[in-house]
Amino acid sequence: MRDKIRIAAGQGFWGDLPDAPVRQVEGGPIDYLMLDYLAEVTMSIMQKQKARDPSAGYARDFVPLMKQILPACVARNIRVTANAGGVNVEGCAAAVRDVAKELGLRGKLRIGIVTGDNIMDRLDDLLARGIELRNMDTAAPLATVRDRIQSANAYLGAAPIVEALNQGAQIVITGRATDTGLTLAPMIHEFGWGPDDWDSLAAGTIAGHIIECGAQCSGGNCQYEWQGIPDLANVGFPIAEASSDGTFVITKHDGTGGRVNVPSVKEQLVYEMGDPHGYITPDCVADFTTVHLVADGPDRVRVFGIKGKQATDTLKVSISYSAGYKAVGTLVYAWPDAYEKARAADQILRARLERLGLRFDQILTEFVGANATHGPLAGEPSPDLAEVQLRVGVRGDDRKAIERFTKEIAPLILTGPPSVTGFAGGRPKVEEIVAYWPALIPKSEIKSRVEVLDV
After folding, report:
1. 322-434 domain in CATH 3.30.70?
2. Which one, out of 32, 90, 198, 386, has a CA that is 20 to 30 A from the CA of 433?
3. How far apart are CA 307 and CA 374, in angstroms?
4. In this structure, are residues 394 and 354 in contact, taking their beta carbons and an 8 Å threshold?
C-alpha cells in the first residue's frame, strides 16, 4: 500500500477535449487516469447504437485514445478507470484488447470488466415482483411508461472497480458506474480503506466529485474572475493528490493553463450537489458541510475535515424513455426594430399553426439577444438592438404535426416582417425526445460482475 497517489481526470463527459487524457499522461507524474464519459442521456444514445449495430454501444473515442496512451501507461504503470463501456462493456474491452495486441503489449496488460448495471432485460420481472421503480421526482410507477423505455442502468459504486484493481487490472472498464466511484476506487485499493470507513470513503467521494467534470474545477466554466484565468486554450485538467488519511490536494500539471484555487473548487463542489448534508452514493453518504478548503500554493487547494455517513440500502437507477418529438427553428432579424420584428414573426407563426389546426404539448419562443437567457429579469429589450434571433420550438406526440411545423419557418422570410439575415441550418429537423426517469432499487437486486482479461 502507498501513502499518496495522484489521480488525474482526463474526460468530464463524452465529447470533452480529445487530447486532455494524452496531456495528463505526458504532462507529469500520475498514478491513475480517470475518464468519465457517461451522462444520463448518454446511455439511451448508446442503447440505440447497439440496437443498430451489436458491436456498438460504448464510447468509441476511448479505443483510439487507448491506442495513443497505452504504451506510456504500461511503461509508467499508470492505471486507468473509465466508464466508457456504456451498454457494451465487453465490446469496448475487446476493442481495447485488440489495440493492445496490435501495439505489442501481449502479456503486459490486464483489462478489468465491470458489468451488472444494465437491467433492461429484467424490468418486467422486477415490476412483476412489486419493485415499482417509481419516479423519484413524481412518484409515478415505471409501469406508466414501460412500453417506451430505451435504457435502464443502476449506478454501481466503487466496490467492483476495486475488485478489478485488486486482481491486477491496469485498465478497468465499466458501464454505468458513478462518476465519483472512478476516483474513489483507486484510493480504496491503494490505502486499504474498509467498507465502513465512512469518513475516508466520503473524502474519496468528494475528491471524485471535484474532478469528475474535468477542467470545470481548474478554470473552465468558472464564473469567479473569469477574465483573469490564464491560457484557457491550454487548460490543465485537474489532479487529485490523495493521501491515505483522507486528505487530498487538487492541482494540475505545471505549465498548463487554467487556474486551481479555492473559488474554482468551490464552484465545482456545489455543482449537482443536492442536499449538502447528504450527498448519497452507493459507497457512502458524504457531508459537504464538513469540507474545508485552504490554498496550498500556486494552483493547489488542500481539502480536509470531511465526514461521512453509512451508505443507504438502495441504488439509483437511470432510466430513459421516449417522450414524443420536438423541432426547433430559428430566424435572425436585423435592426431597425429587430425585437419588434421577431415578436411579430412569432405571432404570425402561431396564428398560421392555429389556422392549420396543429396542436402541440408545448410551444416555446425565445428571443435570443433580448431575453432568452434571463427571461423577465432581462427587462424590456432596447429598441436599438442590432439583431435578435427568433427561436421557436414545439414538442408533442404527433410527429406529423411536428413535421408540418418545420415547413412553416422558412416562409416567414418572404411572408413576414422584413430584414431576416440568417436562416440557421435550413429546415428544422424532427427529433425524438428522450426523457429521464430516476428511480431507486434495493441493492440486493443488483449483482455486479467482475472479469479480468489478459492481453
Report:
1. yes
2. 90
3. 37
4. no
- Cα 289 to the center of its chain, rounded Å: 24
The Cβ of residue 139 has, within 10 Å, a number of other Cβ atoms equal to 8
Report CA torsion sign: 216, 222, 228, 231.
positive
**What would the mean pLDDT of 20-33 be, rounded to a whole number?**
98
- Residue ranges, comma separated, of all CATH 3.30.70 domains in the chain are 322-434
* pLDDT attached to residue 50: 87
Rounded to two decimals, the pTM is 0.94
Tell me the one-letter amino acid at 422.
G
Backbone angles phi, psi at 10, to 5 degrees: -120, -20
Q: Averaged over 172-192, what is the pLDDT?
A: 97
- Give the 3-state secondary structure of 135-178: CCCCCCCHHHHHHHEEEEEECECCHHHHHHHHCCCCEEEECCEC
Cα–Cα distance measured from residue 8 to residue 236, given in angstroms and rounded to the nearest whole number: 10
pLDDT in tens, 64-121: 999 999 999 999 999 999 999 999 999 999 999 999 999 999 999 999 999 999 999 9
